[in-house]
Amino acid sequence: MTLSDTTTSTGAVHDERTVRALLGALDAALDADRRERLAQDTVAVAADPAALDSRFPSAGRVYGRLPLPDRALPDRAGWTVEDAVRAALLLAVAPDRTVTETAARYAQGDAAERRGVLLSLPYLPLGGAAASLTDDALRSNDTRLIIAALGPYARAHLDQHRWRHAVLKCLFTEIPLSVVAGLHERKDVELARMAQAFADERRAAGRPVPADLVLLVPDRGRDR
What we know:
The protein has helices at 16-29, 32-47, 52-55, 59-63, 81-91, 98-108, 111-120, 131-139, 143-149, 152-157, 160-173, 183-186, 189-204.
């Protein structure tokens, strides 16, 4: 059995095909020994979520941190093998424990572990129950977490008010708006107004305006 034999459950943002694409890319990136070890690790987690306590933090050390060689994934945060292993471990958790265990891994994790959790969210059967994790990441000043938080899960589960402020934070922190899932579908007049006010403040202070502003305010977004 390969990792891509794992299937999704109701409540995930991504469909089964996308989950399989992620796990298939991970399967292809691992050598035979690591594939066998991960198969054993996922079985252990499925039997007892407490197995995550040692396996989740050690994912990078055990499996590596190389970029995941797959450009077909819908997330634009630059997945690594380490990230994908953490997603596979969380996918192995029994569905009725997924919300609790996902929250625990985020709360107890360092920045790399939290990034892995955030990237995993749209693949897990969570519904909107993990939106508080996205909110927490967006309150941080760690651009790695902000980028990971603005993927398909935020597109699906952040209300418009919170989502607008998340996009504006990208402008403040100079994160490219290309990482924001659903930007063109969700941007609206109010976001354009907020972005224009931000640009006006920057110009009044003699500071440059991010080039990405044109994606939100196409008529007036360019620096003048």
